[in-house]
Task: structure prediction
Amino acid sequence: MKGEFLRAYTRIYLELEGLKFPEVLIESAYSNLANFLRDIPVGVRRIITRDAGKKVAESFKNFLRDRYKITEIKEEEVPAVVETFFKVSGMGDVKCEVDGDKIRVKEVLGKIEGNSYILTIK
Amino acid sequence: MYNFSEILKNQRLVILPKDLIVYLFEDTAKIGLPLGPRDWMAREAGKRYAQAFMDSVGGEIDLGEIPELLEKIYDFTGMGKVKVSINGNEILLEFLNSPLFKSSLEPQEMLRPFLGVVEGFLSQILGKEVKGEVKDKSYILKVKG
Result:
């Protein structure tokens, strides 16, 4: 049940705390950026994106706590948040599954259908 | 007279959390990527967007309509409230507020990576080269030719 509420809250978070960029602008900037970043070591790139991801998580958790008194997201609730983040942001439709210490995020609709992230919880 | 608000609402959008943008750009600025390629990339993205925007408008946009257009775009995207004025061939875009100013970096440093986007956008819309600079919380853009 909380998963369904989390979907709604994630949508509200993005609507209130999101920046709306035209898709064509993001596509152009990102495709050129990807070429340009090839010279930057993967480790450095990952630190930058991980750091930004952590800041977003912190901001989202603060939003849930301050607005809805939710102080914890359980592992089984992660798919609701991840799937809604991707869908509402316009980044693609994904199916997210938690399986033991693995989280699989698989694109189900989009330009790179079938592509996956497999994340290990340590 | 175009209804820019309606055109903006009908675009295909990507919505990204403010904090993601602020911290990505802050950290990217800190690793000191050279400005030349960054500016080129931003200008290209601005031009591509302008082309798509012009296709939606289905007509030309003249210099006098630029202040309203830019103010609506920045407000719509959430990048900040801006005030735009024109003086001869100069366009002054002042940020009254912006989520980018949440960064620990100076406003000037955070605004710099996005300068190319507005340069490219205006160059394509006006069909004339537009180059600018950042001063405090403003862009000063010069229309050439």
User: Anything to note?
Assistant: Chain B has one domain: 17-143. Chain B touches chain A at residues 11-24, 27-28, 31, 33, 37-38, 40-42, 44-46, 48-49, 52-53, 76-79, 99, 117 (CB under 8 Å). Chain B is about 50% helix and 20% strand.
